[in-house]
C-alpha cells in the first residue's frame, strides 16, 4: 500500500495531478474539502457535528476530521493506497494521521510537495479565476494572501516530514505530463 500526502500552494496543480496519479497507481484521492462537503451535505453524524462548530465560527476539531478520514479509508479496503490532499496542515494533524494509518496497519510513505514560484501561482490562479467562478481566484491580493498563509502554515510540515526522510519536493512547472512524470519518479522510488 502506498500512501502519500500531496501538497502544494494554491494553484500548484494538486487536483490535476491527483487525478492522474490515482488512475496510474489505483490510489484513492481523499480531498479533505470534498470529505467535509459530502458529510455536511448528507447530514452524517460527523457532518452535523462539524457544521455545529462551523456555525459558531469555530474550527472543526482535528478528531472530527480524523474520524471522517478514517471512514473514507474504511470505505476503500481494496485500494492500493491513498492520496491525502488538504490534510494534514499542522504537526498535531500529521501525528494524528500517522496514528490513524498505524491503526490501519499502514503508514504515510511520503509527503510530495509541488513547488511553484509565487508569480507563476498568481498567474495560474488569475487565469483559473476567469472560468472557475471562484471569487478567491479573481482577486490578486486574496491570492497572494492565500499563498502566504500556505507557507506560514505548512513550513512546519515540511520540516516534520524531512526529519522522517519522507519529504519530496517536486518542480511543479512545466506541462502536465512532465509534472506527472516527476511525481511518478518519486512514487516509484518509495
Automatic annotation (TrEMBL):
The family assignment reads: Belongs to the adenylate kinase family.
State the Pfam families in the record: ADK
Supply the domain comment: Consists of three domains, a large central CORE domain and two small peripheral domains, NMPbind and LID, which undergo movements during catalysis. The LID domain closes over the site of phosphoryl transfer upon ATP binding. Assembling and dissambling the active center during each catalytic cycle provides an effective means to prevent ATP hydrolysis.
Q: Which UniProt keywords apply?
A: ATP-binding, Cytoplasm, Kinase, Nucleotide biosynthesis, Nucleotide-binding, Transferase
Cellular component per GO, a single term: cytoplasm
Q: Which residue ranges does the record annotate as region NMP?
A: 31-60
Q: Which PANTHER family match?
A: NUCLEOTIDE KINASE
Query: So what does this one do?
Result: Catalyzes the reversible transfer of the terminal phosphate group between ATP and AMP. Plays an important role in cellular energy homeostasis and in adenine nucleotide metabolism.
Q: Tell me which domain of life the UniProt entry assigns to the organism this sequence originates from.
A: Bacteria
**NAD among keywords:** no
- Any one Gene Ontology BP term: AMP salvage
Q: Which residues bind AMP?
A: 32, 37, 58-60, 86-89, 93, 134, 146
Compartment annotation? Cytoplasm
Class of enzymatic activity (EC top level): transferase
Q: Does the keyword Nucleotide-binding apply?
A: yes
Pathway-wise, it operates in: Purine metabolism; AMP biosynthesis via salvage pathway; AMP from ADP: step 1/1
Stretches that traverse the bilayer: none
Reactions catalysed: AMP + ATP = 2 ADP
Its EC number is 2.7.4.3
| InterPro entries named among the record's database cross-references | Adenylat/UMP-CMP_kin (IPR000850), Adenylat_kinase_CS (IPR033690), P-loop_NTPase (IPR027417)
Record gene name: adk
**Subunit annotation:** Monomer.
Tell me the protein's name. Answer: Adenylate kinase
Per its UniProt record, what CDD domains does this chain match? ADK
Binding sites annotated in the UniProt record for ATP? 11-16, 128, 174
Q: Molecular function (GO) terms listed? A: AMP kinase activity; ATP binding
Amino acid at each position: 500500500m502506498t500512501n502519500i500526502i500531496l501538497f502544494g500552494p494554491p494553484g500548484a496543480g494538486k487536483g490535476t495531478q491527483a487525478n492522474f496519479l490515482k488512475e496510474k497507481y489505483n490510489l484513492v484521492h481523499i480531498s479533505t474539502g470534498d470529505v467535509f462537503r459530502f458529510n455536511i451535505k448528507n447530514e452524517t453524524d460527523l457532518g452535523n457535528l462539524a457544521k455545529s462548530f462551523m456555525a459558531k465560527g469555530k474550527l472543526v476539531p482535528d478528531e472530527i476530521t480524523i474520524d471522517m478520514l478514517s471512514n473514507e479509508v474504511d470505505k476503500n479496503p481494496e485500494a492500493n493506497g491513498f492520496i491525502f490532499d488538504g490534510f494534514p496542515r499542522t504537526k498535531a494533524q500529521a501525528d494524528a494521521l500517522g496514528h490513524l494509518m498505524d491503526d490501519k496497519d499502514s503508514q504515510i510513505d511520503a509527503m510530495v510537495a509541488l513547488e511553484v514560484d509565487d508569480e507563476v501561482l498568481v498567474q495560474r490562479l488569475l487565469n483559473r479565476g476567469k472560468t472557475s467562478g471562484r471569487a478567491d481566484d479573481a482577486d490578486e491580493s486574496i491570492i497572494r494572501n492565500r499563498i502566504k498563509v500556505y507557507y506560514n502554515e505548512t513550513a512546519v510540515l515540511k520540516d516534520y516530514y524531512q526529519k522522517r526522510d519522507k519529504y519530496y519536493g517536486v518542480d511543479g512547472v512545466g506541462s502536465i505530463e512532465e509534472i506527472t512524470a516527476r511525481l511518478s519518479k518519486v512514487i516509484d522510488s518509495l
